[in-house]
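User: Could you walk me through two proteins back to back? I'd like the raw sequence and the structure tokens for each, with a short line separating them so I can tell where one ends and the next begins.

Assistant: Of course. Protein one, sequence then structure:
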Amino acid sequence: MSSEPPSTSSAPLKPRSNYNNWISAIGAVIAVGALFSFALLTWMDLTGSNKNPYLGIFTYLVAPGFLIAGLAMILFGGWAQRRWLEKHGETMPDKWRLNFHDPAQRRRLVLFGAAGVGFLLLSAFGSYQTYHYAESTQFCGQVCHQAMNPEFQTYQRGAHARVDCVQCHVGSGAAAFIKAKLNGTRQLYGYILDNYNRPIDTPVHNLRPARETCEKCHWPEKFHGNIDMSFDHYLSDKKNTAVSIRMLMHVNSGRPGSPLAGIHWHVSPDSTVEYYAADADRQDIVWMRVTNKKDGSARIYRNEEFKGEPPAGAIREMDCIDCHNRPAHVFPTANEAVERAMALGEIPTKFPNVKRVAVQAMLQKDIKNDVEAPTKIADFLRNKFKDDADLPALIAGVQKTFAATIYVDRKADWRVYPNNIGHKDWPGCFRCHDDKHKTASGESVKASDCTSCHSIIAQGKTAELATISPTGLEFKHPGGEYDEELKCADCHNGGIQGK
């Protein structure tokens, strides 16, 4: 007489450990994968010569976060297993237990083990690819920050178009990344809720100091000599007369290796220039202090309206960004953009007063959004210039110029983003150099000492540019005489110019 062994399929099984369950096993795989990713990223962080600003967050925040989540699942699985045994251990089979004697579970465990190995490999590959993608310009400009499309478009045609966004906006190191991403979280909520500011606020007050970003490439010892620059313009007359000014910019009028002079004297290691601006845009500078680091002496300048002392926390030490405040996101004025398109042949110069008319077409007050702009521009130009074979080219050129200059939906253009380099269309240099900031003894910051910053070596029309003056020329206003009491930006506001 044979007897069958007692079946164990329905008998309650007492686990060897409360952590012997599928939930804890899944948590263990996640924890091991996170630990593997953490080890890989830490090795990359310690051995990489080119520090990736995004590497810190994935190494010290994301990977540990998954590790903590995996450990939490292990603990939760043990707690859930204990609770289940207390309530059903004597009456129901333990379905969550890892039972290696059960053939069905063995098959599941083999599949689970293979999936776990695949997860480890994908964790390593995914960690590496994710942080590389997260630092890309595509991620910053298109995926993550669609709200900043104007900034992305201006970045693409700027002088720093091959410098990744994170190099300036984040910088290297985990601490800088955490600070930037905490601020980015606030911006993300604003984007999701569609309540972010239009236009995007500037300046970026939490941007890292220029010495930690700009001077990675533009170090002070490199600043010497003159830079030859030419500025090409068209007059707002019927003939669209072309005029140019060629000048030497005195970046540093001293010798290489000597103390900085000329324009870059403002960031000389021998002196400190500080200022206080009465507005958030740093355009209304009412107080300045220049300190000689060698002897500790200081000169304080105030304009006539400011009588008191600035708040200590609001005093800013001048650095590159205070003049080069649009290093990667330059919004050209309508006037400048049209002149550039004329020089490139995108806007035909055969039409009389075409510069003025093109700017007028771009600045129509009834253009309320980006979608309707091309139609309104075309209608305006057809009304000004009747049938002409080159009219379609003119319309296309002005529409293209508008799309790259004015972003109606985002309320973003040169009128809200001043460029402090120079002083033609914005106050720029004249925020301080205006003869109105004076010390207690009456010493002023001069506005008329033009040759300290630049020397005009040629100016005028084509024939006049053939002769270069090595000693410098006196500036001649292309449009005729002007009131010397006015600043350039009082008339040149980037919009419709007179003759």
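----
Protein two, same layout:
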Amino acid sequence: MTPTARRTAWVLLAGGGVAFVLLAWWLVPWSPVPDGPVEPVRPEDWFSAEQLARAEDFSRWARAWSWSSLAVSIAVACWLGLSRRGRAWADRVPGPWWVQVVVLVAAVEVLRRLVTLPFGVALEQLRRDHGLSTRSWAGYAADLVRNEALGIVVISLALVLLVGLARRLPRAWPAVAGLLVAALVVLGSFVYPVVVEPAFNSFEPLPDGPLRQGIVELADQEGVEIGDVLVVDASRRTSALNAYVSGFGSTRRVVVYDTLVDDLPVDQALSVVAHELAHAQHDDVLVGTALGAAGAVAGVGLLALCLGFLARRGWPGPGRAAVVPVALALVAVGGFLASPVQNGISRQIETRADVDALRVSDPEAFAEMQVRLAERSLGDVTPPAWSQWWFGSHPTTLFRLGLTQDNR
């Protein structure tokens, strides 16, 4: 790595980091509750002892399988990328450099999937045992293959770009790579609803009726323009109840699970949709995309510095295909360490959406819906504090029920 490339990487890291902080300060609702801190409710006031015990039993095992899978996945990535044997294996892959990149990405990702497959199967069996998964094992395998293929394509594209730029532009490659990766983040967020989601599910417009009429009225009340509300066939995979907003601009859409349409009373379903419309009102997908793009710029700068540091100590440099396992190991560790920041921001945004939903919907229905969702998904209403801080992307159920108390 040339001195110029090293200086460029420092500029990317600093510039992307400053942009991320400024965007987070400007766009993230750091005080989403107007009346100040919320006191979570007591679990025994809303759930029976049997419900709490069942949810805790499920959550304990779900955490065990998920965390074990994550730990093993990161360990395997680090062994392949940072050990002497891993480096020797990467150097032996034949073919042109761009073929080597794709082969190495596929090999690393497939191996990580295979070694974590027992944990994934155990988690799927746990979900089946508790009535949360409705898909067959063939459906589970098909979803696994589709997810893996999509991941390999996206990661290969990014790393072919990175290695190719490092080969052709040894001085300026971090800057060009950072900007292109940020552009890919924006493009991916924009096309995801129309390119990726249809590969996994089928969508159809929500039929006319009280729910659709209520959604239209809520959208008018919140000042949100919606082209259509879609129903996704989630019931072929899960019994959970959910809704979401994806895309932005012309690809933005509000999607509700068919389980939610079929199993929730209209007033409770509307409280879920009101939350999602609040995300649309504040352009939260676009906010997340902007933060992701800034984070990508900083991440590429940090990755370039780490790769340069390791290259000076004998590891493959960024212009060689053998750098792929090293880069994947660093990204795996970096993604894990960045989780508290990402999830902390997500919780603030989700809290604002809850507050806005309570403003336009019935607090009683909102509270009943939160209880129903927790019961249906066996959600852990009392997760370990450190787990919620590190991995929790949404406020806890008890916190959200506390919000409803303040709005009654």
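The chain has 15 helices and four strands.

Let me know if you want the two compared in more detail.
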